[in-house]
Amino acid sequence: MEPRSVPGVLATMEVKEPVAKRILVTGGTGLVGKAIEKVVADGEGRPDEEWIFVSSRDADLTSATETKALFEQHKPTHVIHLAAMVGGLFKNIRYNLDFWRRNIHINDNVLHSAYETGVQKVVSCLSTCIFPDKTTYPIDETMIHNGPPHSSNFGYSYAKRMIDIQNRGYFEQHGCRFTAVIPTNVFGPHDNFNIEDGHVLPGLIHKVYLAKQNGSALTVWGTGKPRRQFIYSLDLARLFLWVLREYDEVEPIILSVGEEDEVSIREAAEAIVEAMDFRGELLFDTTKADGQFKKTASNAKLRRYLPSFQFTPFRQAVKETCAWFSTNYANARK
Amino acid sequence: MEVKEPVAKRILVTGGTGLVGKAIEKVVADGEGRPDEEWIFVSSRDADLTSATETKALFEQHKPTHVIHLAAMVGGLFKNIRYNLDFWRRNIHINDNVLHSAYETGVQKVVSCLSTCIFPDKTTYPIDETMIHNGPPHSSNFGYSYAKRMIDIQNRGYFEQHGCRFTAVIPTNVFGPHDNFNIEDGHVLPGLIHKVYLAKQNGSALTVWGTGKPRRQFIYSLDLARLFLWVLREYDEVEPIILSGESPKSSFNPFARGWSHQPQSCPSPQWEKKMKSPSGRQQKLSWRPWTSGESFFLTPPRPMGSSRRQPAMPSYGATCPASSSHPSDKL
After folding, report:
1. Whole-angstrom Cα distance, residue B169 to residue B110?
2. Which is nearest to A238 in space by CA: A43, A21, A50?
3. Beta bridge partners of B68
4. What is the pLDDT of residue A19?
5. Whether B180 contacts B187, CB under 8 Å
6. How distant is the Cα of A97 from the closest Cα of chain B, in angstroms?
7. Of the residues B83, B103, B125, B144, which is catalytic?
8. How far from chain centre, in Å, is Cα A149?
9. What CA–CA distance (Å, rounded) separates A274 from A280?
10. ipTM
11. What is the pLDDT of residues A284-319, one digit of tens each?
């Protein structure tokens, strides 16, 4: 479009395409929020989209008033809702009530403010850890509510499950298109690399970093045998964009690599060792708990929609994440 | 100056003007209240419990030591279907506000009220307390059902994180005075009572919706009220407890004469046998006799009954077979 001057205005004004979507991303500074920000900035954003990334600094989402004010201020047309109270195993066990209450409040405030301000679509974020503890494998989207979750994090799990219930309520009563995705284990830059409280892959990356520094062995907790499906945060971000733009169901969708790409913890550790060129010894502390052996999730629904979507190869994604951590060690969350 | 006993319990009853609240009020007034108890019945006129501020103010005003939490947004089938979101949100807010205000003001015990309609839609029978969360509820009232289920989740959270004794009861179909007798929106028994009343007035037929074959366990509100008092005073678990009526073992035609119900002191050997769950596993004794030597029996539910053996539930009723005497006039 050619710039044109507007009568009475001294400077010429460039006429841009009208903004069709104003997308508010809650939890915008977290692992997934940062990945979406990067993917958008690197060229996957569209000219008719305006992206706004907010964090707890911008509003306390456990407060209905502050959440409403945030929505009034930004007037989003779409929302990617990533904000949550999260934590590792031991924190969950100790604070199940708080994980339940604060997440219920956050989710209710965000969904209801979205409804009241006429947001067209909300994509919330669930997790495969909320599925029933006793279940068959692979798990799929229809099984979320088929039994109690693991007792260690029942507060967090039920609060996340109730996003799906509330989405259904908004759809049935008001026709709102509020939906959710269910990623498996996410990893990437800007993660929480705390060894005690973080998740397995960032914890291992941090351990290798320290082991290299100290010239010590790498000790992996457990036998290394449990298997996990890992999804690179940048791949997840691209899928979030697709869900936001194209996925029309209210029922949630699992976002994961296929069952065939499940890796053991040992294989994950070896990928990190290779990526960081660690030459020391690799040990397994079998006195530590293994956790669930398998949590295999089916990505058949995703593959029906996107048969050709290419995930970043696991070792490459690990390499990129390790490189980011080494470069950003001082500022990384740990 | 008359010296009164010090008040050991100040009991706040939310939803105090509803079916169950009114029954508790009556039972307390009729002599089952204790001298060390002060009972406060509140309704939506006293506070909007969907507001955290108003709920907190209510608790600050009355400073209860105990709470019986009955307040909820309730409704019939069609209202639920149309407003599942509102049933979810408003009840979650009410429950969170009541439980959290109770926690913040140091309430010793909260007894909330669930319902058998929140159990999994696809399930084996009989249902028991351990099965509440084993699958999705019926889709027609999923909002209400999940909100009620989450009371149990939140009770567990308060116990694990703060040691609070917040628990819940699960009544089956309650009926009695002060119910909602609206034919469209009320429940089956009060709806039928209203229909019969109108049919008599108009000289018309009584039309029952459906085939009449579905089966329900009904519990009289006054019996439920007495059980609430026991739960408040004696039931120490955080896990919920089903409070259900039970039919006599023998079969009979509910509309025929010749059925009676004899009160019996319990426990009886027959009763003790019934305490085992169908799987044979000994159920934890979830209640004790009313007072030593005093018997507790359900108000005879006539006409009501089954032509087959009812599932074993913690029950208080007589287990003797029907006699051939005339039905008791006392209900």
Report:
1. 11
2. A43
3. B13, B111
4. 75
5. yes
6. 4
7. B144
8. 19
9. 11
10. 0.90
11. 999 987 777 888 999 999 999 999 999 999 999 999
